[in-house]
Structure formats: structure tokens, C-alpha cells
Amino acid sequence: MKKPPGEEPKDALTVTPPKKWAAGVPAVVHALEYSLEQTSVGKTGVDLLTMNQVGGVDCPGCAWADPAPGHRHRNEYCENGAKHINDEATGRRVTDDFFRRHSVTDLSGRSGMWLNHQGRLTRPMVKRPACDHYEPISWSDAFGLLADELNSLASPDEAVFYTSGRASNEAAFVFQLFARAFGTNNLPDCSNMCHESSGFALHETLGTGKGTVSLHDLHHADLIFLVGQNPGTNHPRQLSALEQAKLNGARVIAVNTLPEAGLLRFKNPQKARGVIGHGVQIADRFVHIRAGGDLALFQGLNRLLLEAEDARPGQVLDHEFIRSHTSGFEAFAEHARTIGWQDVRAATGLTRDQIAKLRDDVLRSERVIVCWAMGVTQHKHGVPTIREIVNFLMLRGNLGRAGAGACPVRGHSNVQGDRTMGIWEQMPDAFLDALREEFGFDPPRAHGLDSVNTIRAMREGRIKVFLGLAGNFVRAAPDSAVTEDAMRTCRLTAHISTKLNRSHTVCGETALILPTLGRTERDFQAGGEQFVTVENSMSEVHTSHGRLKPASNLLLSEVAILCRLARRTLGGEVAVPWEEFEGDYGAIRDRISRIVPGLHDFNRRVARPGGIRLPNPVNEGVFPTPAGKALFTRNAWEMPEVPRGHLLLQTLRSHDQWNTVPYTPNDRYRGIHGSRRVVLVNPDDLTELGLSEGAHVDLVGVWTDATERRAEDFEVVPYPTTRGSAAAYYPETQILVPLDSVADTSNQPTSKGVVVRLEPVAAGAAQG
Ligand SMILES: Nc1nc2c(c(=O)[nH]1)N[C@H]1C(S)=C(S)[C@@H](COP(=O)(O)OP(=O)(O)OC[C@H]3O[C@@H](n4cnc5c(=O)[nH]c(N)nc54)[C@H](O)[C@@H]3O)O[C@H]1N2
Ligand SMILES: Nc1nc2c(c(=O)[nH]1)N[C@H]1C(S)=C(S)[C@@H](COP(=O)(O)OP(=O)(O)OC[C@H]3O[C@@H](n4cnc5c(=O)[nH]c(N)nc54)[C@H](O)[C@@H]3O)O[C@H]1N2
Ligand code: SF4
Ligand SMILES: [Mo]
Fold first, then answer.
1. Is the CB of 737 under 6 A from ligand 2?
2. Which residues surround ligand 4, an ion (CB under 5 A)?
3. One domain for residues 298 and 243
4. Does the structure show a pLDDT above 90 at 762?
5. How many C-alpha atoms does 268 have within 13 Å on its Cβ side?
6. How far is it, in rounded angstroms, from Cα 453 to Cα 174?
7. Which residue has a Cα nearest atom 17 of ligand 2?
8. Residue range 55-80: mean pLDDT, rounded
9. Radius of gyration for the alpha carbons in the chain, expressed in angstroms and rounded
């Protein structure tokens, strides 16, 4: 079979029926198989038992919250958490010899799975101009090289500082401090491609960008919506919370283009009931929605609620909440009443009667929570969709009280914390003022570049230095061909990483690999053994203690790398005690205490079991918008235009990957084995397109520019996705997402809304 360079190899594809339940015993056995392959049995056991426990290591996987101390299971982790931690704790090592054997050109032809499989990076490496190999470099020379490049820039804005959400609070705080002391707000992050739409919509309507619910709220809700998320794979312990909610009487409505296994039934591996028996049905209603139809769905639902109020005045809406806490209700209501059911049907595939059933569920419920993730944020109208979800919650006062609220389900384990620490190209003045007060330098005020704008600026030759703190920017960003060309225009690209990935191989003229400790590892500094802190999706800030021996004795912690680099670059220019920070992370937390509201007395309070829950003003009845009230909004929708014979493609995660890093070619719950180059299409669409199961097709992107975007040779799998849509894995399909196809206002790539046609590959070519 054909395989473009840099893509995953393909074995023979086997397809089995999709699973109807998630996370029972086979899931645990499956994780153990992966971990046994990566580490020794003993080490795995030690790690996993400390995972997500008080005083233990925080799972490096997703940002789902831990139950309160005293309510945790002995095994407080999921199958995928076990895989993520073992992927870091692997016994494999990338050695000097490895880089002698493999040129950069060779490595850039390798797949992400292969690169990751080589194991942990062990020492700093440099690729010099006109040279095709990485070679060892000392830490001191590496810092010297980076500092010289930075200091030779015509403007600090010729550098960008990218962060991925696995970085700790301490590392993130130091990173943004360094960037701003250096003189730029160019701080793009993975969140620009993840929940940026949530941040924008929540900020605008509620005055705060974070979710409002806790685990306790979820456990005690009457009705929970799961919109555009796949918890069985991406937030498996959310299923435990949903199970608990259901045992307490909650109903769950899942809204998705795919009937994901985790939405249907859950067998809890931590309970006998989950080992035998049928498990718990998760979704009481599964709403099989057309791709991108969620705004229309919530608007239809809102119209029905307004009409129910007309029929029973004073009994449906929470007038007290609307009167005292919100503005814009009249304009919103007027607009919502005008939406047409034909239009809603076209956008959602759902009838008024089907939506009326959801209204009835809502009317029976006192406490409603809406959870959402990438199926909502990664569409062109992601921001208005979330604004409409806020409208929905506010109609019945489902904000700021127990068991109710908004729950954007975050991705990376500390992506929310990184933002709290100032990783954002648009940090508000209050934060910048606090930095100035604390450190005595004037941070730049002009907004910096986000992820998409970074690529645009690179393409125009305006960026000379790229420094990445974790992540895999080249592979996470859209429009691979454009992004890779853009990255190669840099004079220097440098990555602080645990493992090898494509961003090390598609690099600038000079490139640095700065290998670092993972979260699982012990971190000794001048001031003794250190721990770090992270913030989960529910705004709980807690500690994470590494337990393992570092993968190599040449590794430095993220904080140490950043502090040394900052000292070398800035000399004595700013009054930041970098050396003290490196020696004792408590000194960093002391400063954070004085800068980040809610983290006062950080060191003392975070030491308590369970840590600190950052206050959310909404839960105190305060809406810090300019008007001091929550805003009802009017949201028009514009469905993506999908020409005849085309489909709307979503690019999503398999069960066996961590973002840009596939672990295996399998996606067990969806019944896909042996190959990731598959495209899932509704059988009726296949008939209409004249394609049959197993056909080989190129996915060809259709966009307003003249560029042809083609992902070659995918195998067609008939799958119950909604009519008109298709699904294929990220990052293989990254090449199809146009850089300029972004969500309105949030500038987030529309990774779930890519117009494609399926072009059959000539019979002989598929075998080539
Ligand atoms: N194992 C594992 N866990 C992870 C990750 C990982 O890669 N692997 N990544 C982490 C990160 S960074 C993130 S952000 C999260 C992502 O968590 P998710 O958002 O669950 O991730 P995706 O795989 O992108 O799945 C999106 C879901 O939305 C649905 N969907 C797509 N389009 C639509 C639509 O228009 N409407 C509706 N209603 N549904 C739609 C898809 O069918 C799919 O179920 O997971 C985190 N957890
Ligand atoms: N088409 C499409 N594109 C997408 C998405 C999509 O759904 N579809 N999802 C988007 C989303 S939600 C996200 S969050 C981004 C993800 O984008 P990123 O966060 O940039 O990507 P990851 O794949 O999580 O990064 C993995 C790399 O991080 C490094 N790493 C791992 N742990 C550590 C650590 O502890 N410290 C350090 N320093 N490095 C570490 C390793 O070198 C590893 O190779 O991708 C986005 N891109
Ligand atoms: S649900 Fe998320 S945080 Fe919890 S163990 Fe699984 S991957 Fe880790
Ligand atoms: Mo994410």
C-alpha cells in the first residue's frame, strides 16, 4: 500500500462492529499489554498506584478532575491514563548513536508512531546549518546559541514561545515571564487549537473563560448534556462521574455525529459490577446530529422553552435569575422565536418533535449541566454555538448553583493552568500590571501571535526563532504543507521535549532538542526535591510529585531549562531571581501568589490534600462582564456549504493515541484495527457516491483558495456517522485543514468542519 513520507505504515485493515460499551476489564488488560511492552512490570505497578492520589503524580493525560481526597479508588486512573504514563516511563532511549544512524531527512520520512517509539530523549542535541544530522551539544552551549539568536533579533516579536498543555504551572509561569521580559506577547499555545472558542464565548457572555462546575455538581445534576465529546476515549474517568450521577437519578443526553461506545454503556473497571454484569447505560437519549448542527439544536430548544413559558407563564423560565443577573434577554428571545423548523431540520437532521423530547427532559430537571469539547469548539461557528449553550443554561437559571452549569471538558492535563499562569497572547492588562508591580519591568501590551497567526507570520518571513515548551507544533497545527514550509523559514527552532516527534525533524536552519524530565520523574534542585502544580478542568490546583528515576542523568527540568536560558539571554536586565526560582519552585509559587487572584498563600494552601479550588465568580453570582451582568446573545448560524458529492469531514482521535502521537494503529471501540488511514462514512452516502466498503480513496480538500489539499489513499469504512459527514483521524488529515479556515472570533482551526470529496484511487495505484 502507498504511504506518504512521514505517515503511519498500514497493515491489513480489519474492521469489526463498533463496541456498544466502554472501559470494562478488557480495557484494563489492554492498557497493561501496552505498559508491559514499554516498561518493567514492577515500575508500572508503582506508578499506577500513586497516580492521581494525594502526594502522587498527576496523570499526564487529560484534565479530568480527581474525586475529593478520601473518595478516591485505589486505582484512580483509566486505561488511557495508564498508557500515557507508561509512554513517558518507557525503558527505551534515544542515544547519540541513534542520531548518527538517522539523518534529519531520514527522520522526517518516519511516522509519528515510529519516532515516539524510539523512547526518551537523553541529552541536548543540535542540528547546525547545512548539516543533516543532530549532534550532541552541552547545555551551556545550547543556551548560549539560543540566547545569541534571541539577542540578535531586530525585534523581540521575531520570536515565538509556544506552550503545550502538559507543562506545569511553575514552568508555564517562568516561560511567559521570560517571553514578556524579553519583550513579546507571542505566546501561542495548544489551547488556540482546542478550547479557544470556549474561552471567547464564556468570557464574552459570563465574564470568565472557565467552566463553572465541580465533580460534586456533576454527581448531583438531574440532567447532563454531553455535546461533541467522546469521553470513553478522551476523558474515561468522566464515565465514573456520569455513572455516579446516574445512580443519583440523573438523565444523560448525548449529542454526537457518531454513536461513540462510551456514550452508550459503561462497565466500571473499579467496581465488581463493572467486571461482571452489563454495566450502566450512560445516554438515556442519543441525539444523532448532523455535523455542525449544535447551534441550531440549542436555538430550537431555546425556542421551545420560550414557547413553553408562553403556555405556562411564570413556570418555565427563571425570571428572577434573568432579571437580576442578565441583560439582552428581550433581543435574544425575539430572535430565537423567529427561527424556522425547516432550517433547524436542515442543520441538525432533527425534527421539532425530536427536539421537543429534549425540552421535556429539561422541564423535568431542576439542575442541568452542559459538557462539551472538540465537536463544538472546532467548527466555524464554535463561538456562537457556545454562546447559545449559555443562553440555554440561563433561561432556567442553570448557572451559579449546585448541580448546574457550564462544563467545557479540557484536553491536556494542565492546559487550563497554563492559561491561569499567563500563557496567552492576549493576557489582560490587570495581569500585566501585576507582573510590572512584582518584577519592575514593563511587559509589552500589544497582543501577540496565536497559533494560526504564528504560521501566517512565519510564512511571511517575520519569525526567526521558535521555542516550544512541550508539544508538537508542526503536527498539531493545520495545513501541514503550509505549516511545515513556514517552520523551515525559521533561523532557529528549539523544543523542550521528552520524546522525539515531527517538530524536531521539520525544523529551522539550526535546531535544538532540549530534553527534559517528565512529570513522573523525581526532580532534585539546589533547594532539595521539588514538586509541581497543575490545574484540572474544574479549576482545582493541586500538586504532582514525580516518583521515578530520571530517564537520563543529563536531563534538566523544564523550570531549570527556562531559568538558565532566561539568565543567559537577559543577563541582569530584569530583576527576576531566576537562580532562586530554579533552586526552589516554592519561590516561583510565592510570586504567583501575588499575581494570580485566588492563588494567595499558594504554597501553604496547595499543600493541603486536594489543593485549592480557584473561585469562579459566576458561582458567587458575579458576572465580570463590562456591564456587570451575564449576556444573552443573538446567534445567527451559517452552515458550511458542502457542494453535491462532497462530505463534511471531522478529524478526530482514535482510542490509542495521545494527540499527535499514535500509540498503535488500532481504534478498538470503533472496531478499526491495523490501519489509521481509514475514512468513516455513512452507508447511504457511500451508495450515493458510488463507493463500496474497502474502496481506496484520496481525501481532497475543497477550499476557497486554489491550493489542492490531498490526503492520499484512505480505505473506506461504512460507519453510522450522520448523513453528509465523514470522520478520519488527526493528525493524518491535518494536511486538509486550511490555515485560513478558522472559527469566527476565536481564530481556532475548524478541524471538525473540512469540506472534502472522496476520489477513488486507480486500482493498481492502491497496491503500489
Ligand atoms: N486518549 C486520549 N485522550 C485525550 C486526548 C487524546 O489524544 N487521546 N486528547 C486530549 C485533548 S488535548 C483533548 S482537547 C480532548 C479531546 O476530546 P474530544 O473532544 O472528545 O476529542 P475528539 O476525538 O476530537 O472527538 C470529538 C467528538 O465530537 C464529535 N463530533 C464531531 N463533530 C461534531 C458535531 O458537529 N457535533 C457534535 N455534537 N459532535 C461532533 C465526534 O464524533 C467525537 O465524538 O481529549 C483529551 N484526551
Ligand atoms: N486536525 C486536528 N488538529 C488538531 C486537533 C484535532 O482534533 N484535529 N486537536 C487540537 C488540540 S485539541 C490540541 S490540544 C493540539 C495538541 O497539540 P500539542 O499539545 O502541541 O501536541 P501533543 O501531541 O500533545 O505533543 C506531544 C509531544 O509533547 C512532548 N511532551 C510530552 N510530555 C511532555 C512533558 O512533560 N514535557 C515536555 N516538555 N514535553 C512533553 C513530547 O515530545 C510529545 O512528542 O492539537 C490540535 N490539533
Ligand atoms: S481520565 Fe484522564 S486524567 Fe483520569 S486517568 Fe484517564 S487520562 Fe488520566
Ligand atoms: Mo486539546
1. yes
2. 194, 411
3. yes
4. no
5. 20
6. 23
7. 476
8. 86
9. 25
Beta strand segments in 196-250, E? 223-227
Beta bridge partner(s), residue 286: 254
Q: Which of 374, 408, 442 is the last residue of a domain?
A: 408
Indicate if the pLDDT at residue 31 is higher than 80: no
Q: Please name which of 32, 599, 79 lies closest in space to residue 590, comparing C-alpha atoms.
A: 599
From atom 23 of ligand 2, which residue's Cα is the shortest distance away? 660
Residue 314 backbone class (left: φ over 0; alpha: ψ -120 to 50; beta: rest) = left
The answer for residues whose C-beta is within 8 angstroms of residue 353's C-beta and 6 or more apart is: none
Does a structural domain hold residue 25?
A: no
Q: Is the pLDDT of residue 597 over 60?
A: yes
Query: CA angle at residue 169 from 166 to 170, to 5 degrees?
Result: 115
Q: Is the pLDDT of residue 140 over 90?
A: yes
Q: Whose CA is nearest to atom 7 of ligand 3?
A: 81
Neighbours of 462 (CB within 10 A): 15
**Is residue 66 scored above 50 in pLDDT?**
yes
Residue 351, all three cell numbers: 425534527
Q: What are the tens digits of pLDDT across the range 149-206? A: 999 999 999 999 999 999 999 999 999 999 999 999 999 999 999 999 999 999 999 9
CATH number of the domain that 268 lies in? 3.40.228.10
The ligand 2 atom nearest the CA atom of 191: 14
Give me the DSSP letters along 293-337: -HHHHHHHHHHHHHHHHHHSTTSSS-HHHHHHHEE-HHHHHHHHH
Decide: 89 in ligand 2 pocket, CB within 6 A: no
> Do residues 258 and 356 both lie within one domain?
yes
Domain that holds residue 271: 196-408
Is the distance from the beta carbon of residue 52 to the nearest atom of ligand 2 less than 6 Å? Answer: no
Rounded to an integer, the average pLDDT of 242-269 is 90
Residue 163 Cα, ligand 2 centroid: separation in angstroms?
9
Give residue 18's pLDDT: 83
Ligand 1 atom closest to residue 751's alpha carbon, by position in its atom list: 24
Residues 426, 376 share a domain: no
Grid cell of 256 as nine digits: 454526537
